[in-house]
Amino acid sequence: MSSEPTTRATLAPTLLLKFAVAGALSLGVVMLVPRTVSGGGDVPPVRMLIETAVIVSVICALALFWGIRSDLRLPVKVGLYAVLFNTLVIVVKLALAPHGFYDVNQTRNLTSGFEIDDSLAAVAAASLIFLLYAVVYVLLYRFFRGRIAHIAVADPVPRIPRGLAIALVVLFLLGIGSGGAILILLLPLFGGLDYLDFVFSSGVSLLVALALAAATAFAALAFDATSKRAHALGDATMYMSFFWVGLYFLALYHVLWVVYVLVLTSIWPLKVVTPK
C-alpha cells in the first residue's frame, strides 16, 4: 500500500466559470428557440429541434474543449473525443428523442398516468434516464481507472457500503410486503419508462441506438487517453477531474431536457388518441 497522502481532484474556479456560463447560455437556448417558431402544428418542427441541438452543442463543445485544454491540460485528442461524445448525447436528448416521442404520441397514448408535461413527472423521468447514463459512465470510469490504481488519490465513486446495500434490499422487501404501497412514491418514474418506450418504438429508434453506441465508444476513447496521460505523468487527479467534468455535462443535459420538454409540451400539447 502506498504511504503517500491521498489527494482529491478539484476543479479550478476558471473551469467552473466556463461551465456555468455554458449552462446558462444553453438554458436560454432551450427556453427561447422553440418560441421562435411561427404557426401551429401537432408536433415540434424537425428543423427547430435540430437548430436547438446544434446551438447547444456548439456552446457546450466550446466550453468543454477549452476547459479540457486550458485547465485540465489534456491532449487535443481527449478534447475531440469528449466533444464528439457530448455532441451525440445532445443530439439524442434534444433532437432525436423528442422527435421520436412526439411521432409515436400521434398514434398512442401515454399509459403511466404521469406524462412528461407535468413538472414532477419530467424531473422524475430525467432522474431515471440520468441514472442510466451515469451507470454506463461510471462503468467506463472504473474500467480505465485500473491503469492509475497505484497512484494515491481519493476515488470520487466509492463502493456501495454493505449497510446501504442491506438497507436497499430491506426497502425492496418492505415494498413487496406492503403490497407495493411504498412503491407508490416511485410512480412518477414510470413517466420516464413511458418516454423511453415511445422513443425506442419510433422511426428514429435505430438512429438513437447508433448515436448512443457511438457516444459510449467516444467516451471510452476519452477515458482511455486520459488514463494513459495520467499514468505517464503520475497524476491521477487529472483523470478524476475529467470524470467530474463529464458527469457535470451529463447532469446539465438532463436539466436542459426537463426545461425543454416542459416548453415543448406547453407549445405542442401531448395528443390524446381517441380509440376507433
Provide structural commentary:
The protein is an all-alpha fold. It contains 8 helices and no strands. 68% of the residues lie in helices and 0% in strands. The chain is elongated and about 60 Å long. Residues 1-6 and 178-185 have low confidence and may be disordered.
Give the topology, please.
Elements: H1 13-32, H2 46-70, H3 76-105, H4 119-145, H5 162-177, H6 190-199, H7 205-233, H8 237-267
Helix pairs in contact: 1-2, 1-8, 2-3, 3-6, 3-7, 3-8, 4-6, 4-7, 4-8, 7-8
The helix count comes to: 8
**Helix content range of the residues, please?**
55-70%
Low-confidence stretches: 1-6, 178-185
What is the CA-CA span between the terminal residues?
A: 70 Å
Sheet with most strands:
none
Number of structural units classed as domains: 1
What structural class do you assign from the helix and strand content? mainly alpha
Percent strand: under 5%
Radius of gyration: 21 Å
Please sum up the structure shown.
This protein has helices spanning 13-32, 46-70, 76-105, 119-145, 162-177, 190-199, 205-233, 237-267. The chain has 276 residues and is mainly α.
